[in-house]
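Work Package 3 (structural annotation) set out to generate three-dimensional models for the target panel prioritized at the project kickoff. During this period the team completed the workflow that converts sequence records into discrete structure tokens, so that structures can be stored uniformly alongside our sequence database. As a representative example, we reproduce one entry of 102 residues exactly as it appears in the project archive.
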Amino acid sequence: MHLLIVMLLIAGLWSSADAAANSATTRGSTLVNACAACHGPDGRSHGAIPSIDNLSAEDFIAALKAFRADTRKGTVMNRIAKGVDDAEISAMAAYFAGRRER
């Protein structure tokens, strides 16, 4: 009986973790819509602006935080990055990472 309860608790925790990850990815997909204007659909640019779909989650997060802190220079990215918080940056990184896993 105790084993069954433990197994159900583990299954519930696993399900909660999956739901949280899916929520972050869904939130990220909404946030990255703004990126498409410059970086192209799904972050794949066909022009002079760099593509962002190929960045690892860590590199994406580091780049946005650097733009936000003005330690990385860009044309408009410094101003744009100031408008997103850490949770939003992580959600966008999770979205792009999830797209690469498909």
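DSSP finds five helices and no strands in the chain.
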